[in-house]
Task: structure prediction
Amino acid sequence: MEYYLYILQSIKFEKYYIGISQNPQKRLQYHNSFEKGFTSRYRPWKIVFIQLFNSKEVALKTEKRLKNWKSKLMIERVIKGEISI
Result:
C-alpha cells in the first residue's frame, strides 16, 4: 500500500511538521481544522514537500529519521531538494 511522507510549514510561524499519510491533502485539512496537538498551535499549514513510498514501513522509517535530525536547516534542505531522503 502506498504512503506519502509530507512536510507542512506553518504560514504564520517558523515551524515545520513531518508526517505520513495515504492522503496528504485530506490530512492537511485535518491539521488545519480538527487536530488538537502540536499542529493546532501553529495554524494555518501548507504542504511544502511530498514523497511517495511503496510501503508504510519505509515511510515510517524515513519519517523517524527526519524527526530525529531535529534540525530546521536539514528539513529546509530536504524541501529544497539539496538532500534526498
Q: What stands out?
A: The chain has one domain: 3-80.
